[in-house]
Amino acid sequence: MRALQAFLTLSTLALVAYTGVAMVNEGISFLPAYAAGVAGMGWHGQFTLDFTVYLALSGLWVAWRHRFSGQGLALAVIVSLGGLCLMGPYLLWASFKSQSAAALLLGERASSSHPPGPPSGGY
Question: How far apart are CA 79 and CA 116, in angstroms?
Fold first, then answer.
């Protein structure tokens, strides 16, 4: 867990610093660059759209991890919009709170009396 925590700390700090430089150089509005990249139908747009899906997936996982509670849904929006600048600190906090990798991945579901998996009756 310590290696993960070190990675999260270093990568979050690096990305926050890079984001700060990008904001100084290009301004705070990233939406025009995002839209132009996706509309261009090139590799930049492909990477941007791929990254957007990863952000949505990370938000969905955070919401699921918190059993789609109000707090979980709010955190999902935050990490989906903030990328690693906000997902990194969230994961770092969760890693210190968790006693194991399973607890980190499952969150509130780790204490469930039901094993993880599909609901009874199949999919």
Answer: 24
Domain boundary assignment for the chain: 2-106
Confidence of residue 108 (pLDDT cuts 50, 70, 90): confident
Task: Look up residue 59 and give its amino acid.
Answer: G
Q: What is the CA radius of gyration of the chain?
A: 17
49's CB contacts (< 8 A; 6+ apart) are: 38
Residue 114 φ/ψ region, left for φ over 0, alpha for ψ in the -120 to 50 degree band, beta for the rest:
beta
Note if the pTM is more than 0.85.
no
Separation CA 64–CA 120 (nearest Å): 18
Return phi, psi of residue 48, to 5°.
-65, -45
CA distances from 12 to 29, 75, 112, 123 (A): 21, 17, 31, 37
